[in-house]
């Protein structure tokens, strides 16, 4: 008996294409080519940074909370988890893992942009605000911690991801939760260690630290909205790309 397969309609073919790649997404992802290369390079960079923490121990290695007292390391961990989901999606061509990666990216990318902005901005004012002189990092390690995660996450976002769907209000709420969870965490670590991870915190009073974290929540929410805008400028909005001819 013949089992000739029924030809797929144009609408079914269009749906399959949309599932494989959002029309505004620049490059195919998940995929075992460029997407996998980007995620592999990112994970290699992040692994180098974590290895540096272990191979160059200091007093923070012995302190309560380890290096997770630093927002930098929390952000690096989120970036690592994001890219781990990304490479897993590339390897298995899994849309579920790809969707999970994109959801986590909505936390990781704005946080890393905030970290890079604060770190390099404060360093430009006075390096001692963010790191004691005895804990200064070599340039390669410094860039690995405070710039590479931002660049890799932006590359993943702008080239390998569909547009974010988060709106301004949810972005603000998410940023506020993250900022104040970190504030509670470092205050708890302070009760155990007797010092703050960043010298700047030592210079601020309780109310000033509260204002700082509230301000960071607002800035992170603004970054989320700005990143969505940049995505639209680079890739287009709706179903149209810049320069696309129908």
Structural summary, described in words:
- The protein is 70% helix and 0% strand.
- With 246 residues, it is mainly alpha-helical.
- It has one domain (27-234).
- Helix 2 (34-55) runs antiparallel to helix 4 (71-92) and helix 2 runs antiparallel to helix 7 (148-160).
- The N and C termini lie far apart (44 Å).
What is the radius of gyration?
Answer: 21 Å
Shape: globular
Q: State the distance separating the first and last CA atoms.
A: 44 Å
Helix content range: 55-70%
Q: Tell me about the largest β-sheet.
A: none
Mean pLDDT across residues: 89
Secondary structure tally: strands:
0
User: What would you call the structural class?
Assistant: mainly alpha
Count of helix runs: 10
Number of domains: 1
- Tell me what portion of residues adopts beta-strand conformation: under 5%
Query: Order of SSEs, N→C?
Result: HHHHHHHHHH
Subcellular location: Endomembrane system
Main location: membrane
Protein name: Integral membrane protein
InterPro entries: ADTRP_AIG1
């Amino acid at each position: 008996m013949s089992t000739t397969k029924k030809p797929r309609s144009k609408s079914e073919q269009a749906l399959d294409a949309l599932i494989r790649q959002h029309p505004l997404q620049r490059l195919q992802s998940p995929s075992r080519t460029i997407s996998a290369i980007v995620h592999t390079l990112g994970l290699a960079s992040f692994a180098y940074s974590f290895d540096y923490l272990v191979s160059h121990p200091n007093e923070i290695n012995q302190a309560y909370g380890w290096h997770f007292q630093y927002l930098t390391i929390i952000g690096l961990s989120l970036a690592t988890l994001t890219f781990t989901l990304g490479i897993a999606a590339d390897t298995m061509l899994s849309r579920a893992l790809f969707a999970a990666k994109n959801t986590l990216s909505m936390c990781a990318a704005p946080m890393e942009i905030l970290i890079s902005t604060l770190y390099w901005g404060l360093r430009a004012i006075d390096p001692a605000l963010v790191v004691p002189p005895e804990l200064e990092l070599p340039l390669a390690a410094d860039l690995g911690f405070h710039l590479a995660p931002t660049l890799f996450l932006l590359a993943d976002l702008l080239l390998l991801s569909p547009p974010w769907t988060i709106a301004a209000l949810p972005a603000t709420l998410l940023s506020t939760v993250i900022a104040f969870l970190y504030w509670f965490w470092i205050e708890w670590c302070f009760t155990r260690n007797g010092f703050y991870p960043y010298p700047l915190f030592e210079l601020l009073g309780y109310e000033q630290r509260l204002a700082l974290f509230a301000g960071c929540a607002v800035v992170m929410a603004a970054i989320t909205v700005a990143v969505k805008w940049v995505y639209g400028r680079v890739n287009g909005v709706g179903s149209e790309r810049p320069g696309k001819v129908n």
